[in-house]
Every structure is written in C-alpha cells, then in structure tokens.
Design brief:
Blueprint (H helix, E strand, L loop, with lengths): L8 H17 L4 E6 L5 H9 L3 E4 L5 H14 L24 E5 L7 H14 L5 E6 L10 H13 L8 H10 L2 E9 L3 E8 L1
This protein binds S-adenosylmethionine.
Length: 200
C-alpha cells in the first residue's frame, strides 16, 4: 500500500514555537478541534505534546484527511482522533462541542466565508472561557506590511482572487460578533502571528 502521509516544510519550522504557547492557552482537559489540519503533522505533534487533551483533526480535502489518517496510524498517538470532514464555511459542522478550536494557516488561503464560518462555529461550539487559537500571517491597521508578507499576499491573490492576507482587525470584528473576545496577539517567527480569542 502506498504511503499517504504528506509533509509541509513549514510545519517543521512552526510546530515547536506554536506548541510552546499552547499549554498556557488551552484548557487542562477536553477535546481540541483543529480546523484545516492539512497534512496532519501538527495534529500528531500537538497530540503527543499535550497528552492530557484529545486532539480532533479535520480538513475538507479528502487527500488531507488520508494523510492525517496515515500519520495517525503510523505514529499511534492514543489521544489523536480520526480526522473529520469539516468545511469551515459550511453552516453545519459534524461536531456539537469543543473545549478549544485551533486553526493554523487557513484564513488567508480560503475565501472569507471560511473565516465567517469558523467564527460562527467557534461561537456555537465553545463553552464560556474556551479559546479559539489562530496562527498565520496577517495585515494589521497601523503596521506596514512586511515585504515577505506583501509578496505572499500578491502570490495568493494571483492563485485565487478570493484568497489573501486578512486584516487582523476584520477577523477580530467577526469574532467579536460571535461572542469571542480578542485576548492575545503573539508575534511569531517569519512574520506570523498567534491570535487567541476567548469565548465570553
Ligand atoms: C496552507 S494549508 C494549512 C494546513 C495546516 N494547518 C498547516 O499549517 O500545515 C490550508 C488548509 O486549509 C484547508 N482549507 C481550505 N479551505 C478550507 C475550508 N473552507 N474549511 C476548512 N479548511 C479549509 C485546506 O484543505 C488545507 O489543508
């Protein structure tokens, strides 16, 4: 049987800086729903690094889910659950509860409807005080865009006019409307941000 595991080079660079932050942000127990898990490498790494939490990966793409499932089988991490098919833009998700939601590098590489859906679902699924954690590149009011992010933004828009780096303030307004308060913005390597919202 062919090996369906995929790798994304950025994961090796960002997974430890992200994991370093997570224990202070995530709850002491429960299920973390990861949206847009991609290859599944983050899911394996975070589930292994946070054995007190159940890690629920998901992706709308069948090849991504096959990769996540293949990593899960190869690595045998007991608290890593089987991947779910979740399109963030869909009005209904196949889950009714999560104790935290994590979404890495999706918001700029999907139509804005995916961000709207993500915020609506986080508002619906999370209990009070539960976090929504985002990671990726953003534009910010009052900050000049970094040259590498400007080039990335142009490249994304060339590939799909509905993609592109979002204004953090627009994302925060969308979150606010769903009962999620912006708690923390952490500058990360390579001009990325970790953005933490907390359900009121
Ligand atoms: C750049 S990859 C990031 C994957 C992974 N989080 C990472 O950082 O390596 C973007 C991912 O977003 C997923 N995606 C795109 N549109 C989506 C949507 N509407 N809902 C959920 N995921 C989506 C893609 O299938 C892909 O796996």
């Amino acid at each position: 049987m062919s090996d369906l595991r995929r790798t994304a080079p950025a994961v090796a660079r960002n997974r430890d800086p992200i994991l370093d932050l997570l224990p202070d942000i995530l709850p002491p127990s429960g299920t973390v729903l990861e949206v847009a898990s991609g290859t599944g490498e983050h899911a394996v790494h975070f589930a292994r690094g946070l054995p007190h939490l159940d890690w629920q990966p998901s992706d709308p793409d069948a090849d991504a889910r096959a990769s996540i499932a293949a990593w899960r089988e190869a690595e045998s991490v007991p608290n890593l659950l089987a991947p779910l098919e979740i399109d963030a833009a869909a009005p209904d998700w196949p889950v009714s509860h999560a104790d935290a939601v994590v979404c890495i590098n999706m918001i700029h590489i999907s139509p804005w409807a995916a961000t709207e859906g993500l915020m609506a679902a986080a508002g619906r699924l999370l209990p009070a005080d539960a976090p929504l954690v985002l990671y990726g590149p953003y534009r910010r009011e009052g900050h000049a865009i970094e040259p590498s992010n400007a080039a990335f933004d142009e490249d994304l828009k060339r590939r799909n006019p509905a993609w592109g780096l979002r204004l953090l303030e627009d994302v925060a307004r969308r979150a606010e409307a769903q009962g999620l308060t912006l708690e923390r913005v952490v500058e990360m390597p390579a001009n990325n941000l970790t953005v933490v919202f907390r359900k009121r």
